[in-house]
Amino acid sequence: MLRSLFPILDHKVYDRPLVYFDNAATTQKPQPVIDALTGYYATLNSNIHRGAHYLAAQATEQYEETRRNVQRFINARNSHEIIFTRGTTESINLVASSFGQEFLKEGDEVVVSEMEHHSNIVPWQLTCERHGAKLRVLPFSDDGVLCIERLESLLNEHTRIVAVNHVSNTLGTINPIKQIVQIAHSHNIPVLVDGAQAISHMAVDVQELGCDFYCFSGHKMYAPMGVGVLYGREDLLERMPPYQGGGEMIKDVTFERTTYNDLPFKFEAGTPSVGDTMGLNAAIQFMLQTGIENIAHHEKELTDYATQELLAIDGIRIFGQAPRKTSVVSFLLGKAHPYDTGTLLDKLGIAVRTGHHCTQPIMEHYGIPGTVRASFAIYNTKEEIDTFIAALRRIAPILM
Ligand code: PMP
pLDDT at position 387, please? Predict the structure, then answer.
């Protein structure tokens, strides 16, 4: 059974079977991913691209093979449009910094949404500050749906880019990226998509979405921490200056003048996380073999069931009731502080996340300090949801 591929799920916490519902923070890793990582260090470890020896050649080949697999996985036109980073945060910072340097000037505007993770807000604030540009915000309605009808009126001749998430990590909302891209492109404005919470739940086709940049982290899609991806449209990447300087990203260096390497290496300064990249390759194979449709279907069943069971508990409030959602359920139990709910659940062996989930503007929208967030992955079960609901029913009288 698929669950047995994940050794950590057999572990006990406080002498109870672990119920892991913190998948939006990071997913657990299947054995083939762990094997790819340890296998790399046991048999292949060497620095890529520069070595004249066997191991370096093999490692380089597998690293570049992974790039081609990522390209196919998200249906990018070219493998040099795939840039390896440390994760979503670094991918967005790269674009905010480099795109900002090339395209932003005093009086320009950047549009983000009210439901962004701080990683898709703060890098833009930093770059806006640097260039004298302004941040504008597309709001969402109380049920957690973007007010897409307001987008058009936010765009004008000063808008340089729209940056929005594919899926909200707090509300679970799946945003209408194709529609956002169509509206933005009709004004010749490029769109960056933060795909951190989408990539493990649905098939992503960057050509179909039409977006100009797409960012995600390996660790949220069953791969190791330490590797992520930036997809960027070739013509934009070509125009953008390097983000970091160092080895690998250059063609020629003299003290007078340095010329830069071709894509994607222009944006990959220094030694990358090669072993983690091998793990990402194995994670992609795991997802394809499991079937992305099967993953989506199973997670929807779990989410519908958990939502129905939660709503049957007196005093529960769920934040994020969009018609199209992934497997994230954010809630509060009466007036109980989310941290207290999370701590008591933890003592019963149930791992959830509590707090603002790096989305303080969402908390501000609802006037709450935070939520309890349960998020499900392919290996979770209905029985685990029953355990979770029974635990909540047990702790509700203590907290409410
Ligand atoms: N965006 C979203 C929507 C996220 O959920 C996260 C992770 N919580 C990030 C960005 C940042 O991802 P990472 O920490 O892997 O860079």
Answer: 98
